[in-house]
Amino acid sequence: MKTIFLIIMTIITFLPTKSQEPILSQPKIVVLPKSLDGTDAFTLMRNDKLINTTATAIKTVLVERKLELADLEQLITNADFNKALMSGLSSDANAFLASSADADVYLEFEVQIIQEGRGRKVNINFNVKEAATAKTIGSAPGVSESNPTNDVGALCIIAVNNAMDRIMEQVRAYWAELPKYGKPMMVTIAFNNTKVNSELPDGKYIDEEVEEWIKKNTKSYRMSVTDKTMTFSPVYVDYIKYDSPTTFGRELRRLFDKGLGMKIRLQNTGKSIRIEESN
Prior knowledge:
- By secondary structure, this protein is α/β, with parallel strands linked by helices.
- Helices cover 40% and strands 27% of the residues.
- The protein has ten helices and ten strands.
- It is elongated.
- The termini are far apart.
- 29% of the residues are buried.
């Protein structure tokens, strides 16, 4: 009887309780080279052999360590996206790419080959950044040993592994803070025929109602306003209540439809939410 009692107590001990928070899945990571002379990451990875080799090496190491990579392939083949990118961004281009790929963080890298006598080594400098804001959350250098080899890819792998433990320590520290501070997203609200500070029939004002809703439904936010736009970049939202930007965007659409009596179009691209007034 004692044995049975102990087994039952052990099972009860390990049953999850309602008070336990859901486990936050691991972050999605995307790998992007630092822009050179204004050239975007896609062009660099397509045309620069060393950068392409380095990006491949970094992704190989991330996959070997069973980390989740965000997919850039759909963005690369999307002509409209590339056209928008090339039109000139006021924000950080790599952050825009990373957010559009639904990444949580991106590893921005610079690489160089250093000749040492008959040998050569690869030096890679990483900046670890939050996708929605381009905020740097860490950095680390990685260097291979000097070797008289033509296999640059192998040297890149060594250099990446040399830096990866430090990088992942920084990513884990950032990720551990997410339940407290919230998951970052970007929200843009654009009006065509209406001014942001227009008065509604019930005497309320659009900008006040929108900001009040954002204040109630986010942990924190940064706002900028013009006559026709409201931008919240970033907003930090509860990752349990809003498990995706789509969920958050749909709730915000309800505010316009039911609360403000306005018809809008909603578009989600990765962590970017765009709302436009319908004509």
